Amino acid sequence: MSVASSTASVVPEGTTATIPTVTVKSSKGDESVGVYLILVGLPGREDLRIERRFSDFLALHSKLPPTVQSAVQLPGKKWFGNMKPSFLQERRQQLEKYLQTLLGLLQGNEALQSNRIFCAFLGVVSDTSFQADHDHLRGYGAFSITFGEELGSTVTRGNVLGVTLTGKVDSDVISSLVTELLAMTFDYARVHLLLDLTAVDSGEAGVIKMLFAQCKKIKRIALVSPSTIKKVFLAVDSPFAKLFVGIDEKIFDPAQKGEAWKWLMEGMETIQSTKADPILYKYTGSERFGREMKVLIIGGGPAGLTLAAQLVARGFQPKILERLAPDNPNRGFVLGLMPTTLKLLGSLTTKDGQNLRRKLVKETGLWGKYNLANDKGKLLGTYSFGKLIDKHGDGAMAVRGNLLDIIATAIPDEYIHYKTCIKDLQQDNNEVTVTYEDDTTETFDVVCACDGIHSRTRRMVFGTLETRYLGASGWSWPFQTDTTQLKDGDAYEFWSHKRFTGIYPTGTPGKSFAYAARVVPANAPDPVDQRIPTLLKAFDGMGGDLLKPVFEALKQTDPEDIFHDDLNDFYTTSWSRGRVVLCGDAAHAILPTGGVGASMAMESATVLAEELARSDSKTIALAFRNYESRRRGRVDRIQSQSRALGKWAVGDVPAPLASLRDFAATFFSEEEVMGFYEANLDEPI
Question: Quick one: average pLDDT of 376-392?
Answer without folding.
Answer: 92
